[in-house]
Amino acid sequence: MSANGKAVHEAQDRALPVCQPERLSESMRYSVLAGGKRVRPVLAIAACELVGRSAAAATPVACAVEMVHTMSLIHDDMPCMDDDTLRRGRQANHVAFGEYTALLSGDALLALAFEHLARGCADLRVVPAERALRAVAKLGNAAGAGGVAAGQVADKASEGKPVSLAMLEFIHLHKTSRLNSAAAVCGAIVGGGTDGQIESVLRYARSVGLLFQVVDDVLDVTRTSEQLGKTAGKDQAADKATYPKLLGVEQAQAYMTELLAMAEAELQGFDDAERAAPLQHLARFIAYRQN
Amino acid sequence: MSANGKAVHEAQDRALPVCQPERLSESMRYSVLAGGKRVRPVLAIAACELVGRSAAAATPVACAVEMVHTMSLIHDDMPCMDDDTLRRGRQANHVAFGEYTALLSGDALLALAFEHLARGCADLRVVPAERALRAVAKLGNAAGAGGVAAGQVADKASEGKPVSLAMLEFIHLHKTSRLNSAAAVCGAIVGGGTDGQIESVLRYARSVGLLFQVVDDVLDVTRTSEQLGKTAGKDQAADKATYPKLLGVEQAQAYMTELLAMAEAELQGFDDAERAAPLQHLARFIAYRQN
């Protein structure tokens, strides 16, 4: 794990003390501290550094976005959603802790995300309250009806039906990309970026967010459960709309290349190549990842 | 509906535009605009007025707290929780819209609560960002592992077991009272109350919050489903810990009287009797309500 990844992990560990009822704390800790790729924290921190601030200013945002993401995974795995039993190489939260605890630990993580963001920025004193409040609004939008929840509903409603490319883009834009974008944009906001810088970061993040989903879909059909650490071939079994299903695997892979180029182009506008390097590496990491 | 109640209803209507996917918007609107007692919005606005500001400054807080409360009801009614089919006199959200939509509209409402609070206070310009951010943190804590979610987990985990009075108080403190207190405290915060005033409001709200739950428990055994607009006798059927079960109906009613007196005593500290009147009426309304 990188130094920033370690800082985020430790901050999340501190943000999740074991308290009554332990069943709830343990369920929250189980999923948040399980690891994962931590793409969103990296995005938040790299965007904050890109606009000239240190990683520490973005730690509350990075933790908050990851809590929202973890909530969405816990709820996504539940029986009334994807009914998945495996996540990040181990039992899904609802299998390990039972259904009602999984439901409520997702709710608690979503609430904690905003509490942590607000309190964390206030404690830091280097992030003005106006900026922190703007980040709260952006994250709220991306987590709810303007993002994750809208994407999940559209995704479920599309199962077993013929799905247009427009609907597929709607689903992935909302379900995945908006939260990735919010991570980067919030990082740039708390980092004190100008409006123009925040716009560039947003466009970069949109390309990377979509790239992330196309790669995910492709891996689901080209890799095994063991290689992925989660159930492979699940999308196909549920007859879900995916890029390989709609475009074929080869076309989907060509789309990946195109999206990577678009993301990299957005970084050209920043003079400081050294500061832009982490976001460039991240885009490539996402494009070439194997699980 | 009072003028303040109408303002909150209209603000929530505006905060919930119908957008894609309509299924999600409609599910959110169905539960938020269903009415209900709106105790928390009244608390938030009355506390804001108590410390000397107009109701308008507390409208974003009032809406946000009611969204959090509505989310908790939607999730509480789900099959993996209380499996209730009736709410506020009509079908529970998961019955009307299906289980996954209910799950996700709860998530979306929770996220919207924070977005609305942050954006609403920023738009008003009369609430300094520091105060709005403090309200976000308080509401996040009350909605999650420091409040509602913790109370719901403890409640479910207690079903069918002998429950101590200490556990019963833990459940109600977290499941209900913390959110009521957050409504009042956040109202006093955005209203610009002093630390001492905020403390008084908190103690008042704690008594009223507990009062609310004891009354709820008593009504569940003394009234019919038709009178309540929700399934009566449900707690008993699920063998849930309640005040009438633990203390008997008469003792529970005596406790109601005691809590009302404690709440009223907290308001004596405020010089301006006129400003304190709404909170005094609210406590009495809660104590004497019939559904």
Automatic annotation (TrEMBL), chains A, B:
Q: Which GO terms describe its molecular function?
A: metal ion binding; prenyltransferase activity
Gene Ontology CC terms: cytoplasm
> Gene3D superfamilies attached here?
Farnesyl Diphosphate Synthase
Query: Organism's domain of life?
Result: Eukaryota
**Family note:** Belongs to the FPP/GGPP synthase family.
Q: By its UniProt entry, which PANTHER family does this protein fall under? A: FARNESYL DIPHOSPHATE SYNTHASE
Identify this protein by name: Uncharacterized protein
- The species this protein belongs to is Lolium multiflorum
